[in-house]
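#structure-requests
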Amino acid sequence: MFCRQQLADFQSSLESIQNEGVLVLAGSVDPLDKAEEMIAATGVSFPVAYGLAAEDISRAVGAYYDPEPPYLHAAGFILTPNGTVAVGCYSTGPIGRLSARDALALIIHFKNAA
């Protein structure tokens, strides 16, 4: 669940992240047409899921949810190779988002610690 700035941020670091063997995936509550606009505006080349049910996703991953209009505040996760959450970053407003730089640093740290 990324915002426009996060999408652009992760796109700008995508090659470095992929060089670590990591995939990037974003999710949005927007319908397809709005998601496509966001993808075009940011130049994102990684997968973006769209049409997510905000309340359901909130319950599933713990992201903060506002009912009117229904939307999720940004949440970012770094998963281990077996799919467990290594790091979760939850925003409750317009700040406090996982940056690509921080994500890459954590990924490298985890790989070096293994």
